[in-house]
Design a protein that fits this description.
4 copies of one chain form a homotetramer. Chain A is α/β, with parallel strands linked by helices and 402 residues long. Helices cover 42% and strands 18% of the residues of chain A.
Chain lengths: 402, 402, 402, 402
């Protein structure tokens, strides 16, 4: 039986994560690389009927006037992220991809992101409703042209300034009315894309700390339309380590007095996070889990700073100060030197693959079993990575044979 | 109902771990310290009928001619392990303890440990059988004098040179015959204590990498006598972290190319490990788990070296070199600065408490549910700390109400 | 020949640095401690006629209502800075010291420091002139009562908000007129103490980033009165390391692209630096030297944050990203775990001792040969620690025999 | 005036350091790279008449059957040492270089190095005298064909097993007689090359811990022939840092209790050092300086281990445990992640350039002013890098104008 073709639609389609995911997918399809870093390639997920890489087709929205290949080349030359030989073999596919990328929207993304946009995108005047409809037209055209059985939309764009979900109406019908008003409305771009996708029955994943589908009303829309979504903020580096290490302190009854984490990096994400409004959303997301895992709140400090020379390489230094038996303070420190895009990109592909399988399985609403992929998993209180991973394993074991 | 009194019998009763456990137990009984570092004090173990600290009585074997209080004082003055104020309040109890400590045996402990022993112990001539009988006489006298319902023997003495369990007869009756021969026989001291305890129906725990009860024949003895045992090598620092961190690399499909761990410390344990024969047993124990957790064997290097100025503070630097998506190498490093005795001592007390509860529950043979406490848990292939801890939780949930 | 008695007058006489210097001096006078950490005890300074420790007498100003012994005890119990046994032997001297400590002034110290002050100090109404005269009366009384040949005033109080020296008149006569006006005038407390001391012919040292004697007009006063001064900001930890390490990169022509330094600590100094106004003075002082040493300005980031559990222990993580031959980026990182007071206190005593010797030698004005002790040495452009130390050695070699 | 052409003759001409130096020199000659990492390009050495890069010509001895370009390519692909674009532009020059490389000798290099050699080199039977004469013929042919005014021979080959210089005759005439005997004689290959070069009046530099010209008799030969030499063991990474940092502890009178340094790397040098005989020479060289700088011997531990995945990247973790004022222990740690070849190669070129200038200046015998480049500078007791660098500066200032 010929399997169906599945669309991956990336918001921020030429950013670092998207470029790396794109080159990676092409390289997988061409058999140029091994499967390191891909969760869905672990032995335990080989019998659950995941769609093979070759059946996926990429497209997306982008606000900048750049070319995919140039962005990927920059990751190679500035940060040694992508091997030059592999990249050369992917060039023709990257050039073809240009035709499947549409201009995005900068509604409510804040001035720092706005300034990155090309003139056409920046000068476009549209209401929230018009933006949604434009996005939906793009998605439908993509699905039709490429003969896709399903589309998974993934937000991998820059972090927007924080929006408090509680400031929005809790019901979809009320939120929908606000969207109909003239002007940009209350939703940031990440949520407009979410509404557009979920309303069409497509899946939506938010790999960033932006609002996306985190509003209750948007979750209601997803359930009404039998679509599915999950988020938010991919757990790739320092926070992943926190969700691994904090359980050790908890289970050994070691009292964490303070946990300090300093992060430095230098890619475009760093430029956006240099704006305090955008940074706050990120820092909150990185700092949330310790209290839940430990059962009390130690003093915490999280910084994330732009250091240009680091490029795509994120270095984190964490200092954990704790007391043990008889009250004596001890110290644990780690230094993480990871390449942001290389850690994020495979998870994006994994999430799409698991979500597509959930679509075939009839799962709707929040896909909580994907919690282990996110810093702030929607609807999931558990932050222990080991226990989150067991949710994924349990879902996989329970899948109907297909 | 008055609860029964329970004996804790420490082999190596005046070493660093034992001294810290002793001061800690006294301090707990006097209400001088909080419960930090004690696993059995976690909320989830409060409803399973563990025996309160005040019901435990300490005794033990020791080969050196030193006083408990002096050893504890040295931990205070040389390594700031124990608070001076707490120690002063425990002095009278430590002095009383002297009467419950008996001379140990140095049969087959190797020359480095032998040299630590006092003249009486070093010059004693006894066969393996005589040593076992002497130990049993000590244990029975302890139980009788202190009116104890049960005794848990814990080996916290220095690491003996490695003995290959496969070199011993697999059946108890055959091993027992060897013990009857004249001379020291094939078993190191740690195993003679194990035989002595298990034969009496007492519980035996091996917190060290020494052989202890790891021989199949000794396990058979335990099952025949309805006694229980577990080991070996307490998981307190660098190896604990490996058993926490390696699962992250495995579950994210990140390929570990090499894992280097260098440990430095300066206490008496360090002096003993300065002998290559003794060190080998330790290093093997620290290096075993990565292959099991990862599913393949990366290049590994483990060193543990004596640096006198460090005293009881063990510092470990671990360097993990791994590849992710698209094959690019990345690096994770950690630095652990822990106080060996403070990390080990509460686990000794926890192990005793859980084991005593298992005794009341009728558990016999290997107590596999204690796997999370050990670097090389007997009879347990699982090395992922999170999964090991779930074994402890499952045991606790399944306990008969008492 | 009986040597003269010399006064050490500490501004912030009960703070962490002062308390440690005080206990240290007493311990040196009683022969309780060795000379570790004391520069003036190096072999090369043994033939230059430095005054022995027993000839120094302590006094000072303090704004808080606390007792010296209690502050020292807190350093012992909270941060294990001072050994309990040593401290006990110094108690009676610490109690006697109370009589030689006078209430300080909080003129222009900023609200964060003001809030630390006792009611008497906080509520005192005095003009700048009155404050100077009160301080001078205290100093003269100290010198008279203790029969002192000379007094060295050292500022070890909390960091004041930054004052731009360029905002002050450059000539002493003009500044002096401003002091005569009613009200607090333009000078922060650190400078009022400097004026008071230098006007009397005493020596003044500024161990903090506060303004102190850094104004040109105050230097003129010092030269007019034949007194001497130096500052500012003691170089004790991370910045010391920068002044050691940056020359290596310079001399090997390795290009530093970025230098990130994160500092955490938890003492009272940390509380004061939690106020952004006060912090700015500190950060500027820590960040100045790299450009001078390297000859170009790399991207730098310096943070210093209050983490309460750290107490007096300052931990710094520095990440240096540099390129070498053929342009490939490399990394150097260090972690410094030092006890702030223990690193600063001996330097305070050394500075006093060298300054007193300079007084006998007839040196006046800026004591530039003390540059190696300061983050921002007044009047000295050289920041390479090795070269700065040679200035001290050269001064010592050139001393007239006495 | 046209400047003379100068030969650089590399022993180990296709190893990692040599390959990097070669590509680097070609890239400098072609203007492809900036001068980062080159000491001789510092502003202070621009007026002393150093020979420009374009006047240098490369040649050398090699024992392996490999091609220069392939070795450089491996540094690019395995360790990202050399940029692919730069390398491609140097290929034709690398290919031409093949004609100027001659088979080396493996006399007394130990079995580990011997096994690396090609069949021709390994099977050659020659006495020490024959080897010297063959080397001299190669050097003379090189000088003649390339019309060279002078040749500087630099040993950058693998580390030989240690030879005790004291085991050799102290006078050249006695050593010369031993060389005349049949068989390999007492000298390792590194010394045979030294003798060959110095006897011809050429310069010899030993960048490795091998014996080279360190024997007193060979120094006598150099002085007799008016030739010049220096060594040994290039100071590129961890030891450089020790020579920078130890002076700080000394000058602040901080007592170093222990200094632990663990090094890991994975290039061919690492394979050779895996042989304990070869490793000992290296470790001794890395460990020598602390006692000299500090004035006392702390406990030290130096390890250097082969971890294949690291390739040419050497990571060092150093842990310094020291006491300061009042005896409290503190800790300094650093992590150095440097690329061995990239750090060594520019120093090789600098050394050649300075040595050639010394030749024109008429300097003969030991070139002590080059001490800052070496872990164990011959004839120089000073190990403080800052002071060693001043020796270089002093030499440069004293040069006769040319």
């Amino acid at each position: 039986m010929a399997r169906a073709r599945i669309g991956i639609w990336l918001i921020g389609a030429k950013g670092g994560v998207a470029s790396t995911a794109t080159v990676g997918l092409i390289a997988l399809q061409k058999g140029l690389i091994a499967n390191a870093g891909l969760v869905s390639e672990l032995p335990e997920f080989q019998q659950i009927g995941l769609t093979p890489w070759k059946n996926f087709v990429l497209g997306g929205h982008e606000i900048r006037d750049v070319r995919s290949y140039d962005e990927a080349l920059r990751l190679h030359s500035e940060s040694r992220v992508i091997d030059g030989g592999v990249l050369a073999k992917c060039k023709s596919e990257l050039d073809k991809l240009e035709g499947r990328i549409r201009p995005g929207t900068v509604l409510n993304v804040g001035s720092t992101i706005e300034q990155l946009a090309g003139a056409e995108v920046r000068n476009r005047r549209e209401s929230a409703r018009q933006a949604i409809e434009r996005v939906q037209a793009d998605l439908k055209e993509f699905a039709k042209k490429e003969r896709l059985a399903h589309v998974v939309v993934v937000n991998v764009s820059s972090t927007e300034p924080a929006v408090d979900p509680a400031s929005l109406p809790a019901r979809w019908k009320d939120l929908n009315k606000l969207i109909d008003k003239r002007g940009p409305g209350p939703l940031p771009a990440s949520s407009l894309y979410a509404v557009a996708a979920l309303d069409l029955g497509y899946s939506y994943l938010n790999f960033t700390p932006s609002l996306g589908s985190a509003a209750a009303a948007i979750d209601e829309l997803a359930r009404e339309r039998d679509s599915r979504h999950m988020g938010h903020d991919g757990k790739t580096g320092e926070t992943l380590l926190k969700s691994i290490l904090a359980p050790m302190f908890a289970k050994r009854n070691l009292q964490v007095m303070s946990w300090v984490g300093h992060n430095i990096f230098g890619n475009m994400d760093a430029q956006v996070l240099d704006d305090p409004a955008n940074k706050q959303a990120k820092v909150t997301s990185k700092d949330r889990l310790l209290g839940q895992i430990l059962g009390y709140q130690p003093q915490t400090l999280v910084s994330i700073e732009r250091i240009d020379s680091m490029g795509d390489w994120k270095t984190a230094w964490d200092h954990v100060h704790f007391t043990g038996f008889l009250g004596t303070p001890m110290t644990f420190q780690f230094i993480w030197q990871g390449c942001d895009s290389l850690l994020a990109a495979p998870l994006v592909l994994d999430l799409v693959r698991f979500t597509e399988r959930a679509w075939r399985n009839g799962d709707t609403g929040l896909l909580k079993f994907l919690a282990s992929f996110f810093k702030s998993p929607l609807g999931v209180a558990e932050h222990d990575f080991g226990l989150q991973f067991q949710m994924l394993q349990a879902w996989a074991s329970g899948l109907k044979a297909m």
